[in-house]
Automatic annotation (TrEMBL):
InterPro entries with a match to the protein in the record: AAA+_ATPase, AAA_lid_NorR, CBS_dom, CBS_dom_sf, Homeodomain-like_sf, HTH_TyrR, P-loop_NTPase, PAS
Identification of the protein by name: HTH-type transcriptional regulatory protein TyrR
Keyword Ribonucleoprotein (UniProt): no
Every PAC domain range: 301-353
UniProt domain CBS: residue ranges: 13-69
SMART domains tied to this protein: AAA, PAS
PAS domain: residues covered: 127-181
Residue ranges that the Swiss-Prot or TrEMBL entry lists as coiled coil: 337-364
Keywords associated with the record: Aromatic hydrocarbons catabolism, ATP-binding, CBS domain, Coiled coil, DNA-binding, Nucleotide-binding, Transcription, Transcription regulation
């Protein structure tokens, strides 16, 4: 509210002409009221402390009732008002009058309730006039309705937009005057909103709000504006922005340096390649050597080219200048293209070198690793560093991730590559034979033993490397012997009287969490710590999907030669294989590729065939459920549930859509997926790759 509408208490109060004291008689008080012509006064004590207020009627009633002193008829005083209080901001209270004090707290007047109400009404009227002026002068259209949907106010811009008049509109039902009916919804729900709508060829934007009185919706007001021109300009601007963005994208995508200059050689636009060619100087105008070709293109109004040697690098450039011809035929700007021929020669040399390396790699024996994913590159880098030192290694990872291949790589990168490399699958050796297989035996050590005795795997690897796969399968009583080998590099053959010194580098591998086995008492903690000197965790194939195309191509070539049957995998097939979760990792991928070579009838493998071979979609059958053997009903029900959940997740990609396919709630599906150990990895919404942990 402006200053002209502000009214202060000091402007309307009655200045203090006299005060009365609480000990004064009612007769004296009556004479004072008459003498000064007042309606009310402040009551004080001798110390001039305000103790109450009294009105004329209070004195008269007191006299009529036989009371004698002011103290008997006065009323308690509310806190004094300040002369600077705004009339419309104060709560007057229930008394007939209030004392008024100045800045120092000195009593200067009184304000009666009648004076306050009169002044408040005047301020309110002035405010209404201001609001009415703003309402009518507003650029936006404003329209309000009552709780029954009848129009209660409409300003001139709204009259113009609705093609009506105030006299015609006031009191009419909303939709009898205007087409949009959103204000009725605001009255019904009590919730405001913003909306853009179209009437004919015009576009409007409106903000609608409820009118609340004492917590009840009594109407609604809408403020709206015709934004047709703004919308058109906005669309035009978006089109221009899109064109500029496309042109900039084309410029940045070019392998040439590109700049646009005017006749004076000032650069108005350039790409990053241009700055790179000129060593990032971000020059504002072309060099003197290029200025000549700019003027030649503009004067001749046709493209021209020249060979130029860069002064900064000495590289040979081809510079092309293409003038921009305006509609009136003038040419004031030119597009410059700079191609660095040195870079092209370098690329050609690199291409030849790449071809040579590829040819050499194709001829190498399969002793190299195939990878591209950063996660696998990190593992190989650690393995390369570990190979250089004679330290015990523990390779961990899921079954089929390539632990044996990595162990073979470490051996070939180590100083022991010319010595034996013995691979032992501890899970494939019967427990009764494991000690004799690992450590050997003397002649006659047990019934059926060879006459000359036998070297164990550790002796066979003497001087070289031994790879102990599935190390978790070694029984506890042999773990003690293995720990002794690692600590002292001595073995004891079965039946031998003295130990034998050996020199072996140990690489162990496991697909089980040894820490959990240690906690469960199934694996010795001291052996675990001895093996875990340098652990290397190989990521599962689903975490290094960038390797899948390389692996597919590698094994495609191998099986094409083996089966004399070339196959081509489409992009869709590779995408489907990258989407698959590969619970069996690289081993499963190799088996899948070979199965495709064996069973494929077409030379082209597409995503549908991949889905069929990887069981990503159900095989067509007369019955959706097939029974292969008799198992307990509860177990069969759980297995069918598990398979259905996996298939639904593969097909639907998200839990929500999969739940819809299966006819259950999403929460039910998530709970059952957790029950059966089915995980999801990444993807839109809530994950799209699913696999069973078993």
């Amino acid at each position: 509210m402006g200053e002209e509408m502000a009214m202060m208490v000091g402007d309307i109060m009655v200045k203090t002409k006299a005060v009365i004291f609480e000990s004064d008689s009612l007769d004296e008080a009556a004479r004072t009221f008459v003498e000064y012509g007042l309606d009310g006064m402040v009551v004080c004590r001798c110390s001039e402390e305000i103790v109450g207020v009294v009105a004329v009627k209070d004195v008269l009633f007191g006299l009529a009732q036989g009371k004698t002193t002011v103290r008997e008829v006065m009323r308690p005083s509310l806190p004094p008002l300040s002369i600077h209080d705004r009339v419309e901001a104060i709560e007057f209270g229930g008394g007939p009058l209030r004392p008024v004090v100045d800045e120092s707290g000195r009593l200067v007047g009184v304000l009666t309730k009648e004076q306050h109400l009169t002044a408040y009404a005047k301020v309110a009227q002035l405010r209404l006039k201001h609001l009415d002026a703003i309402f009518n002068a507003a650029h936006n259209g404003i329209l309000s309705i009552d709780a029954k949907g009848r129009i209660t106010s409409i300003n001139p811009p709204a009259e113009k937009m609705a093609r009506t008049t105030k006299e015609e509109a006031i009191g009419k039902f909303l939709t009898d005057v205007v087409i949009p009916s959103g204000l009725l919804e605001v009255v019904r729900t009590g919730k405001g909103h913003t909306e853009k709508y179209r009437v004919g060829k015009r576009v409007y934007i409106t903000n609608r709000s409820p009118i609340i009185d004492e917590g009840k919706v009594v109407g609604a007001v809408g403020v709206f504006q015709d934004i047709s021109e703004i919308e058109f300009i906005s669309n035009e601007l978006e089109t221009v922005k899109r064109i500029v963005n496309e042109l900039q994208t084309v410029m940045e995508a070019s392998s040439d340096g590109i700049a646009i200059t005017d006749r004076s050689g000032m650069i108005t636009r350039r790409n990053k390649k241009w700055d790179a060619l000129f060593l990032g100087t971000e020059q504002e105008r072309v060099t003197a050597s290029l200025d000549r070709v700019v003027r030649q293109a503009l004067d001749g109004r046709q493209p021209c080219s020249m060979l130029h040697q860069g002064t900064e690098t000495g590289n040979i450039w081809i510079v092309s200048a293409v003038p921009i011809i305006e509609e009136d035929g003038r040419a004031e700007r030119v597009v410059l293209y700079v191609k660095d021929m040195t870079e092209m020669e370098q690329l050609r040399s690199e291409l030849e070198e790449t071809k040579r390396l590829l040819h050499m790699l194709d001829r190498q024996e399969e002793d190299h690793l195939i990878y591209r994913a950063p996660a696998m590159a990190h593992v190989v880098n650690i393995a390369r560093q570990a190979a250089a030192v004679d330290v015990t290694l523990l390779l961990t990872g899921e079954s089929g991730t390539g632990k044996e291949e990595l162990a073979n790589y470490i051996w070939k990168q180590s100083a022991r590559r010319a010595r034996p490399f013995v691979k032992v699958n501890c899970g494939a050796i019967p427990e009764t034979l494991m000690e004799s297989e690992l450590f050997g035996y003397e002649p006659g050590a047990f019934t059926g033993a060879a006459k000359k005795g036998k070297k164990g795997y550790f002796e066979q690897a003497d001087g070289g490397t031994i790879f102990l796969d599935e190390i978790s399968e070694i029984p506890l009583h042999l773990q003690v012997k293995l720990l002794r080998v690692l600590q002292s590099m001595e073995i004891m053959r079965l039946g031998a009287e003295a130990p034998k010194r050996i020199d072996v580098r140990v690489i162990a591998a496991t697909n089980k969490p040894l820490e959990e086995l240690v906690a469960a008492g199934r694996f010795r903690a001291d052996l675990f710590y001895r093996l875990n000197v340098m652990p290397i965790a190989i990521p599962p194939l689903r975490d290094r999907k960038e390797d899948i195309p390389l692996l597919v191509d590698h094994y495609r070539k191998r099986f094409a030669e083996k089966y004399q049957k070339p196959l081509v995998f489409t992009d869709g097939a590779l995408a489907a294989m990258m989407d698959y979760h590969w619970p069996g990792n690289v081993r499963e991928l190799v088996n899948a590729v070979e199965r495709m070579f064996v069973t494929a009838v077409s030379p082209v493998i597409d995503e549908h065939q991949v889905a069929k071979w990887l069981h990503l979609e159900p095989e067509p059958a007369a019955s959706p459920v097939a029974v292969g053997e008799i198992i307990p009903l509860k177990q069969a029900t759980a297995e069918v549930e598990r398979q259905l959940i996996i298939k639904a997740l593969h097909k639907a990609k998200t839990y929500r859509r999969a739940a819809k396919l299966l006819g259950v709630d999403a929460s039910t599906l998530v709970r059952k997926a957790q029950k059966y150990g089915i995980q999801s990895w990444g993807g839109e919404e809530d994950g799209f790759h699913a696999a069973s942990r078993d």
